[in-house]
Amino acid sequence: MPPATHPLTREYIGFGVVTISFAHLLSESDPDGVSQGYLRRGTVVRVIERTQITKAGNSESWVLVESNYSSSTGISRGWLQESSVEIYGSESQANTASKTMNQ
After folding, report:
1. DSSP one-letter string for 14-40
2. What's this model's pTM, rounded to 2 decimal places?
């Protein structure tokens, strides 16, 4: 699993692949955040930050991601529940996983 905070030598943690049919990209790391749109299964994203929140006694991990796959705005940035993303150390690993997932 990648580190909770990114290494000082780069501006991101790693690359992720969305693993569920549709993942809502939210404005904040909270299930009640405003939807920025959604990402489909197999979408590759850059993982910028990771955070842990506790709500009603339950702890959840969230990741701030950046995606080039938004048709309306170009690059999208927002929060996803970490459970909906598989994180890899390199973009090539994530692209390979995405291709395998979409077959």
Report:
1. EEEEE-SSEEEEESSSSTTSPEEEEEE
2. 0.80
